[in-house]
Amino acid sequence: MAVPLGTWDSVLIESKVVAVHAHLLHTGKVLLFHARATPIWSRLFDPESNTISADNQVVPNWPKQYVDPIDPIKSVYIEAPAIFCSGHCFLRDGKLLVAGGERPRPIPFEVTPPNFASGDRGLIYTFIFNPSTEEWEIPYGTNILPHRMADGRWYPTLAPVGEPISDPRRVLAISGWRKDLVQYESGNWFDVTNDDPELYNPSTGWEFFRKSTDPETYGKLPEPLTYADKEVNYPGVHVVPFGIFNTYLFIAAPSDQSYFFDWQKLYDSAHPTVTPYTRVAAASPAPSTDPSLPHFRYSAPTVLFPLNNSVQSAKVMIIGGMYKTPAPPQDPPLPDIEVLVNTTTTIELNSSAPHWTENTETLHYARVDHNAVILPDSKILVVGGNTISSDAGSILTPELYDMKNTSAGWSDLPNMQVGRNYHSTALLLPDGRVFVAGGRVRNTGDLEDDTNKSIEIFSPGYLLDGAQPELTDLSTEEVNYNTDFTVNCNMDLDSFVLIRPSSVTHGNNMEQRLIDIDVVSHEHDVYTLTSPVNASVAPPGYYMLFGLTKKEDSRSGFSNIPSVALWIKIDTI
Fold it and tell me: I need a surface site. Which of 199, 306, 401, 566 has the fewest CB within 10 A?
């Protein structure tokens, strides 16, 4: 008997707001928001009932307000919370940190440059969603100066950092567009990439590292993340768990501008010229008519392969995407041609000389604006995207890849009902299903009607191949690093994994990672497990604990069927 391919729920769920941003909270609910116009609304999806919340959670405005002296009706908050295309990740207490987004036009509007209508400037502010109260918060409250960054970030990446666990600064913000435009000699105004990193301390706010007396000081990115005059935002960033770059952050994309980033060197004020960055070799040449072009990729997700403390391998893969190639010579010149790829490229982070390598196993579909979801059985589900750089050419066929059996290549799964293109999201749910939502559709002219307000749920094949095991009696809800704990199960299991909950937008999942954890002993229905060894393997916070059956216990004999997850917090106690 073959392994079932999986199935999509026949009924689409109305999401009320567009899931441009989607986050799995440790309460088990999914927070989603689009945040394109004020007031900013978010909604909560409950996977247990497959329902969306009846009411919106409203993002609060910042306290400072512009009052129009002539027409008070036009009075607005100067920096309304347009957290559209913001960065986000979870803090160690499970709260969601959201920073940056689209900066509103200046007040009054007349100061906007005449040849620049709107947008392309980054918000400097920070917001928090509290899963316990299900409400948005302004860090530090509204009566004093809330947490804000030194400069704007639109399309930034926020990444949790690893060791040293004692450092209160637990989140890095990188890239995105600055809050102000730059005017060139031509008189035109342009956006500019923010190439200064910042670290966030929940108690004190953001810490900026560039010295005002020296524009080339420590911390600044070696070069802005750009390619062919196109800013590259939402870079993939992963904590390095093993090897000589242990505790560093790996900036994975674009692949020809990848760096290992020793964020701890940002504090070395005694040696400001010591660079915290180590650049890696670019990928092999792109499959184009110009073999000299680097295999640069954007609009492509990056995935960290499963981590295992015994094996200590850390591999990152960039999946699909596109690059640019010069158009044929012509007067006036044509813009560069965007070329989609169905290839993947990987890098071993713990190698003595890390470099990108093209893989022989290719996707069946070249695609952009897709999402990649790590499943409990160590497979990657690639879902959505399109065949051209627009809202057309939707790819309805998902693909599956086994990260522990890479030679098997990619396999097609049943088609979804709705195309999920730019501004779509996908993430793993605690019951092993996959949440898919959002995506751009043909623009009808209305600000919010050019995106899809529906949710579609996918049940992977393992859920159709036998009964799910049941985990009970977790000995602790919070565990220290490298510490034993116990859990009960109603059947014999093959293995256990921890998966960090997703925080995803634009195909960039700023959180997900899978960790194989050791089984110390098994007696009757009680399993003794060991938590991850340190914060580089598992940044502090909440994780889903899945138990997986032995393959021979599935109907097909080939599926590791996951349990419904139990939540456990990993941190210093």
Answer: 566
